Automatic annotation (TrEMBL):
Gene source species: Micrurus corallinus (Brazilian coral snake)
Alphabetically ordered keywords of this record: Immunoglobulin domain
Residue ranges of domain Immunoglobulin I-set in the record: 53-90
Family matches, as Gene3D superfamilies: Immunoglobulins
Protein name: Immunoglobulin I-set domain-containing protein
Length: 103
């Protein structure tokens, strides 16, 4: 069973009973108080094996990098180069599940 519409940072107490054709069983209180909090998940990148290799691009050509991301709350994504800033012409797109860079 799933309880919906619980408010974050609120405390709840629950009780349970069994029900069947013979009737309703005795109620039992669930021990303790349940505090509703957002589940935290550390940020993580899922780099494809191809992205771990050296990538060659022709002069004047374009490069598109697509990287799935995970984490809760949704991580902030920052693209950078080892030797400096990414040029202004770069297009960066990020959602809650992926980030992409087009140069």
């Amino acid at each position: 069973m799933e309880v919906e519409k619980l408010l974050e940072k609120h405390e709840y107490k629950f009780r349970i009973c069994a029900v069947n054709k013979a009737g309703v069983g005795e109620h039992a209180d669930v021990p303790g108080i349940i505090l509703v909090e957002e589940k935290l998940e550390a940020p993580d990148l899922d780099l494809d094996l191809e992205l771990r290799k050296v990538i060659n691009v022709r002069a004047g050509g374009s490069l598109r990098l697509f990287v799935p991301i995970r984490g809760r709350p949704t991580p902030e994504v920052k693209w950078s180069k080892v030797d400096g800033d990414i040029r202004e012409a770069a297009i960066i797109d990020s959602t809650s599940s992926f980030t992409s860079l087009v140069l």
